[in-house]
Write a structure and sequence with these properties.
By secondary structure, the chain is mainly alpha-helical. It has helices at residues 20-25, 61-70, 77-87, 89-100; strands at 7-11, 14-17. It has one domain. The chain is built from four helices and two strands; from the N terminus they run ββαααα.
């Protein structure tokens, strides 16, 4: 017999039982879980940082910068940064240049 429990979409192609989404939001750094339903599950950095697997969305450069700015809310901010830098190496280059005190010219690609 099939379960009639309602499922909720939390990421592109990912459905969770109703109520589990709100439990995931209570984890540290996971307040936006389930709010990015059209983003592929591989484009989230939350699981790497100890938050919900569907938090810290990084589908584009603007969201990646936002994830870096808010990484301190995750249990493991360094892991969030590592995931973002692996998908967007130009941000790591920019970070390294700024650490040296130099300005860099990074394109604002979409």
């Amino acid at each position: 017999m099939k379960s009639t429990r309602k499922k909720v979409t939390v990421a592109k192609g990912v459905k969770l039982p109703y109520g589990k989404e709100s439990k995931l939001r209570k984890k540290p750094g996971s307040s936006n879980t389930g709010r990015y339903k059209n983003v592929a599950s591989s484009k989230f950095a939350g699981k790497a940082g100890g938050s919900s697997a569907y938090s810290f969305p990084i589908p584009d450069l603007a969201h990646a910068r936002n994830a870096l700015a808010r990484a301190h809310f995750a249990p493991s901010p360094a892991s969030i940064r590592k995931k973002v830098y692996s998908l967007y190496p130009q941000l790591k280059k920019r970070h390294e240049m700024r650490a040296k005190g130099k300005k860099s010219k990074v394109s604002k690609g979409k």
